[in-house]
Design a protein that fits this description.
The chain is mainly alpha-helical and about 300 residues long. It has one domain. Helix content is about 70%, strand content about 5%. The chain contains 13 helices and four strands. The protein has helices spanning about 1-25, 30-45, 55-75, 80-85, 85-110, 120-135, 135-150, 165-180, 185-190, 195-210, 215-220, 225-245, 270-290, and strands spanning about 115, 250-255, 265, 265-270. A two-stranded antiparallel sheet has the order 1-2. A hairpin with a 2-residue loop joins strand 3 (about 265) and strand 4. The N and C termini lie far apart (about 55 Å).
C-alpha cells in the first residue's frame, strides 16, 4: 500500500507541476528556489536520520512547500500572499495554531490519532507542535490559490441563497460538532468524520450572513472556483501530509477503531476523503476567526439582507 501511496502522490504533484508550467507568465521567485532547495535538502537529511531535521522534518517540509507554492502563484498571477500581503500571511499562520487545537481538543476524548517521536522537552516539543500547526491553514489556502490560478473552474449563473438553507446548514453542522462530544467514548471514536464537515456547515452560512468572505457568497455570484479549488487543495495537501509524515522521526499514528488493516502510509484509505471537506473548514474557520480578532472587516452584500 505504501507503493500505491507514492504513486498517487507523485501523480498528483506531476499534474500540478505540468499545469503550473503551462500557465506561468512571470519568473519563478528566488524564494521558491530556496524552498525547493530546502525541501530536497531536508529530505536527504531526514532519510539519513540526521537531527534535528529528522525530528522536525514535517514543519520544515511544509515551510519549504509554502515558499514553493506562494512563488508558483506569483509566477502565474503576478501576485502572492508573501510578496503582496506578508502581514496577512503571518497572521494566518498565527491563527492556524488555535484553529487546529480545536481538533486536538476533540481528539483528547475521541483518541483518533497519537503522536510519537516528539521531543520530551517542553520547549522543543512545543516548538514542533506550534511550528507544524502554524503551517496547516496557510498550506490549504495557498494550495487552493494555486489551483484556482489554473482556471479549471468556470463562472456559473448567479443564484439566490435561501435563508432556510443557511438555517438548515447551521443546525446540521451544530449536530455534527456536538454529537462526537456527547456520545459514549467508545461510540464517539467512530464519529470523528462528522467534525470534518460540521464546522463548515455551521460557519460558512454564518460568514455569509455577516457579509464576510464565504463559499455561499461565492456561489450566489456563480463563482464555484474557490469551493472546487479548496476541495482539490484538500486532496493535494492530504497526500503530502501523509507522504511526508510517514518517514519523519516525529510523526502521528491513526489509532481510531476502523480500517486499520487498510492503510496507505499511516492513514486508513477512507480517511483521505476527509481531507476534502477539511479544506473547506480551514477556509471558513479562518475567516470567522480573523473576523473575531478584527483582521477581516464586514462588507455587507445587500442581496443577503432579509
Amino acid at each position: 500500500m505504501t507503493k500505491l501511496g507514492v504513486i498517487v502522490t507523485a501523480a498528483t504533484i506531476t499534474i500540478v507541476c505540468l499545469e503550473f508550467w503551462r500557465r506561468r507568465k512571470h519568473f519563478f521567485p528566488y524564494a521558491g528556489w530556496l524552498g525547493l532547495a530546502a525541501l530536497v535538502g531536508a529530505e536527504w537529511l531526514m532519510f539519513r536520520g540526521i537531527e534535528p531535521v529528522s525530528t522536525y522534518f514535517t514543519p520544515i517540509a511544509w515551510s519549504a512547500y509554502l515558499l514553493i507554492c506562494d512563488s508558483a502563484v506569483f509566477a502565474i498571477t503576478g501576485r502572492s500572499r508573501l510578496r503582496n500581503a506578508p502581514r496577512d500571511f503571518f497572521q494566518m499562520s498565527l491563527l492556524s495554531i488555535p484553529l487546529w487545537l480545536i481538533f486536538e481538543a476533540y481528539n483528547l476524548r475521541l483518541q483518533n490519532w497519537t503522536y510519537v517521536g516528539v521531543p520530551t522537552s517542553l520547549v522543543w516539543g512545543l516548538l514542533g507542535y506550534c511550528w507544524s500547526f502554524a503551517t496547516i491553514t496557510p498550506a490549504i489556502l495557498e494550495t487552493a490559490e494555486l489551483v484556482e490560478s489554473f482556471g479549471w473552474f468556470k463562472q456559473g449563473a448567479d443564484r439566490m441563497i435561501p435563508p432556510a438553507l443557511c438555517r438548515n446548514m447551521m443546525v446540521l453542522g451544530a449536530l455534527c460538532v456536538i454529537v462526537p462530544a456527547v456520545l459514549p467514548r467508545h461510540v464517539a471514536a467512530l464519529s470523528f468524520g462528522l467534525l470534518w464537515i460540521g464546522f463548515y456547515l455551521v460557519l460558512d452560512p454564518l460568514n455569509y450572513r455577516l457579509g464576510l468572505p464565504s463559499l455561499l457568497g461565492d456561489i450566489s455570484y456563480g463563482r464555484w472556483s474557490r469551493f472546487c479549488s479548496l476541495l482539490v487543495s484538500g486532496w493535494i495537501c492530504g497526500w503530502l501530509w501523509e507522504f511526508w509524515n510517514y518517514w519523519a522521526a516525529a510523526k502521528w499514528h491513526y489509532v481510531f477503531p476502523m480500517f486499520q488493516k487498510w492503510k496507505i502510509f499511516e492513514m486508513p484509505v477512507p480517511g483521505y476523503l476527509g481531507f476534502l471537506p477539511f479544506a473547506l473548514e480551514c477556509f471558513v474557520m479562518y475567516v470567522t476567526a480573523a473576523w473575531l480578532v478584527r483582521w477581516i472587516p464586514r462588507s455587507q452584500d445587500p442581496r443577503i439582507m432579509e
